[in-house]
């Protein structure tokens, strides 16, 4: 490890310590509403960074993160739901064996999240093997279809998912400690990968497949690696999400979720991991602030009824405006690095002198 | 003349490829020996690049074999062909435009990386040691090709001539024993072309390479190639020293047409 890498690692660990301090303060002093938004933002970070790995870094257009999040979400929900609750929830048809015979205690939550990620990663492997061998937009079509299939399964495979009613009463294990840690470590790991030789190979595939292959990069293996890792973290994000809101139903992970994530990664810059982190936070807060536009508005004597879904219209307009003025998103494919921050600070000091 | 009784490095045996009804290359045979600098010339559309694509696995031959270092590599995928020691450049430059010059070269080292993908994810020191080693080697290589002072530039921002040189550097970074150059001098003026040809010759000697290059301008290859193969309509119509090629009536016919 060179001197710069050591410095970066040290700064990253300091950032982690600061974040942990921040979490303990936030848990104590912030109201539940703000904490809820922060939790959502962190979950978006995990999902968006994973999504950017396949879409932005590797340049393979996937439309399936909602499917992977659903798999992770349902896995964690079924594993963590207490046995008593399982009997109550599955009153239409009982839950199938073996899930009706056990339930994870709270200290196995991390394992459940991990298994949720693994389940999603396996699904990614299954779709990836046939589609990633092909060149072109097959992945987009296949993953879009996959998301829909998962949704249909969630609605109709009642002995496992409890159908459209969904699963309620999942213990709310997710708190800021969990979400901030997952957000931090996912970014740490994915950024580590992106900055490595593997990341360069993935970007080379994005830039020019023919040349990448001619330089010895095995296209299929690397696309699959990126896709499966992306699936894993999406699954974890889904698991965190359902244990945050304590319920899961098919309507939670529809294509709207993919669309949200797409907005985040495009606004942040396709190929910029840190850009996705920033826009995930902006998005989570905007989503709350823009609730106003969906509420009934009274101007003088007229009262306009609230229109549900107006928020998405605002986001879509925002996206159009961004595409006109910042076609490559806020950060393009550049990363915010420690080096950049240090240069900025130094630059300012020098200009002040 | 080289002694030709040793094993050829690359041997193309009756390569044929047809796309639907169109036979792009037909019964093409050629042998390259270690240290050779061989040119492949022919009019536009003669099938020169197709021969390269058959060697590097972009296309699979309908008939015939590609033997490299005594091993049958017919039908190998392009990345496998690279690992056995054949590297190439492209007629229309194919750099990784948004990556830096250094990163472009580093991509070629990836295939020999020992670490698993988990090592950089967890920031393991073993990975960083490897990264440091390949970075040093990449710098040395860029130094050797005279691109050391633009390592941090984006590849797409380089002037044309330097992009060509970067493509060659990137190919060299895969540690090839055979280098295929597809019209390296395309789009260059005579002065630049001469410099490039000197550069190619120097690379062959410095890196112990065998070079097989395509050129459609006959004058260019005459200067540096020791042996030339000529293609027309997918077939090899002549092979020999520049002197022999220059006086070969079939070659003159292919290039200038027939007098009625």
Outline the fold blueprint.
The complex is a heterodimer of chains A (353) and B (260).
Chain A: H1 3-29, H2 32-57, H3 65-80, H4 83-89, H5 109-131, H6 138-156, H7 158-161, E1 167-168, H8 176-194, H9 197-207, H10 209-214, H11 219-245, E2 247-248, H12 255-268, H13 273-289, H14 291-294, E3 297-299, E4 302-304, H15 310-325, H16 338-352
Antiparallel strand pairs in A: 1-2, 3-4
Helix pairs in contact in A: 1-8, 2-8, 2-11, 2-12, 2-13, 3-5, 3-6, 3-11, 5-11, 9-11, 12-13
Chain B: E1 10-19, E2 22-32, E3 37-41, H1 48-55, E4 63-68, E5 71-72, H2 78-84, E6 86-88, H3 101-107, H4 118-121, H5 125-144, H6 160-172, E7 178-182, H7 190-207, E8 210-215, H8 218-224, E9 227-232, E10 235-240, H9 242-246, H10 249-256
Parallel strand pairs in B: 3-8, 3-9, 6-7, 7-8
Antiparallel strand pairs in B: 1-2, 1-4, 4-5, 9-10
Helix pairs in contact in B: 3-6
What does this structure look like?
By secondary structure, chain A is mainly α. Chain A has helices at 3-29, 32-57, 65-80, 83-89, 109-131, 138-156, 158-161, 176-194, 197-207, 209-214, 219-245, 255-268, 273-289, 291-294, 310-325, 338-352, and strands at 167-168, 247-248, 297-299, 302-304. Chain A has two domains: 1-30; 32-295 and 305-352, ABC transporter involved in vitamin B12 uptake, BtuC (Orthogonal Bundle). Chain A is built from 16 helices and four strands. In chain A, the strands form two sheets. A two-stranded antiparallel ribbon of chain A has the order 1-2. Chain A is globular. Chain B is of the alpha/beta class and 260 residues long. Chain B contains ten helices and ten strands. In chain B, strands 6-7-8-3-9-10 form a six-stranded mixed β-sheet, with helices on both faces. The longest helix of chain B has 20 residues, at 125-144. The mean pLDDT of chain B is 90. Chains A and B meet through helix 8, helix 9, helix 10 and helix 11 of A and helix 2, helix 3, helix 4 and helix 5 of B.
